[in-house]
Amino acid sequence: MTHRQGKPLRRWLTVQRIAALACSAVLLGCSSGPEKPKPTPLEELAPKIAGKVVWNQRVGSVNPTTLLAVSGDVVTIGLKDGSVVALESETGRELWRADAGARLSAAAGSDGRFAAVVTENNEVVTFDQGKQIWRARLGSKVVTPPLVAGERVFVQGVDRAAVAFDALDGRKLWVQQPQGDPLTLAQPSVLMPFKDTLLSGQGAKLAGLDPLLGTVRFEVTVASPRGTNEVERLADLVGPGGRAGDVVCVRAFQAAVGCVNAERGSLVWSKTIGGFQGVAADDQYVFAGDASDRITAWRMVNGDVAWSSERFMHRGLSAPLSAGRTVVFGDAEGYVHFLSREDGQPLLRIQTDGEPIIGAPVRSGSTIIVLTAGGSVFAFRPE
Predict the structure, then answer these.
(1) Which domains does the chain have, with CATH numbers?
(2) pLDDT of 300-335, one tens digit each?
(3) Cα–Cα nearest to 162, from 102, 116, 114, 208
(4) What pTM, to 2 d.p., does this model score?
(5) Residue 161: Cβ-neighbour burial (10 angstroms; 0-12, 13-18, 19+)
(6) DSSP symbols for 262-295
(7) How confident is the model at residue 21 (pLDDT cuts 50, 70, 90)?
(8) 72 near 365, Cβ under 8 Å?
(9) How far is the C-alpha of 324 from the C-alpha of 347, rounded, in Å?
(10) CA-to-CA distance for 372 and 354, rounded, in angstroms?
(11) Is the pLDDT of residue 367 over 60?
(12) Cα separation, 269 vs 303, whole angstroms
C-alpha cells in the first residue's frame, strides 16, 4: 500500500495477494487446492497460410510482465536485471544495449529514439539511442511500461497517478492524481496515446488526459465493481488495449470487456466477462480470451458476439494481436497460433522454444514478434 500526506489511501493488489484472497473466499481448503485443468490438446493442423520464423534472438532474463515496445523498425525490451536492449525488427540485429543500474519493475517504453524504464528503486531512467540521459525518483511503485511520445515520458504508478517528464532533460511537467480510492492491480494497466489525448486506466475507468497540462478531459466507467470482498470488487483496467479509429477497447480485470469512443469520451458498449489479459481490436471485431482461455470475438459496432472458440481452453493464452486477416495468440507451451479473424478457425501454428509466450505479440510492418519466458525473441512473417 502507498500513502501520501493529504491524499487518499490507494490500494493495490499483487498477483500473490489475489491468489491468497481467492483461497480464503472459497469453501474448499487451499492446502491442496483444486487440480489445475489440463490444457486442451492441440488438433492436427494443415496450415492454411504460409509463415515461418525469420529470426530469433536470446536477449536475457525477463519478468512475467515484460512487454515488447515497438516503434517503427525498432523493438525495445527491458530485462529483469536492468538491461535495456534495442533490436532491428527486420533482422533481429542488436542496435544497442544499456544498463539502468538496478532491476526493473516496469518494461520499456520507446518511441524509437528515447527509451524509458522504471527500476525497483522507483526511478524512471531514460536513454537516447542507448545513452542514459537522466533518471528521476518516483513517488510510488510502477509496473506499467512508460509511454514515450511527443518528446515526453509518461509514467503511471500502481496508485494510478500519472506523471509527465520532458524526455530531453527529465524536467517534471505535471502530476495527475486520481480522485477516490481505486482498488488497483500490480499488473500493467492502460497507458496509450489517442490523437492529442493521453489515455490512462484509473481503476475501472478510462481517463482521457491533456498531455500538455495533465488535466482530465473525460472519464468513462468501463466496469462496475461489485462483490463482498476485494477480489470480487477488483475491476482495474489491464493492458494492452486495442484501437480502431476513434474507438479504444480495454479489459477490466475479471469483470468486463468494453469499448470507449475516445473522441467523444463516451462508452460504446461493455460486456461482462472474466479474464485478466488485454484485448486486440480492428475495424470490425474486438478479440480476447477469458480466464479459461475461451476466445471471443465481439462486433466492434455493438458488442454482439461474432464467434467464440474453445479450442485453446486452459492453454495459458497471451494477450492477442490483430494482424490483417488473422488474430494471433501465444500459449504457455511456446506455440504461436494464427486464427481467422472472421470465424476463429486455426490457420497456422508455429513453435518457439517451448517456454510460455509472455505479454502480447507485436507487429512491425509485415513482421510479427513475440517474447518467451525463456528470454528469447522470435519474429515471424505470415504470408
Answers:
(1) 49-62+276-383 (2.130.10.10), 66-186 (2.40.128.630)
(2) 999 999 999 999 999 999 999 999 999 999 999 999
(3) 208
(4) 0.89
(5) buried
(6) TTTTEEEEEEE----S--EE-SSEEEEE-TT--E
(7) very low
(8) no
(9) 13
(10) 8
(11) yes
(12) 6
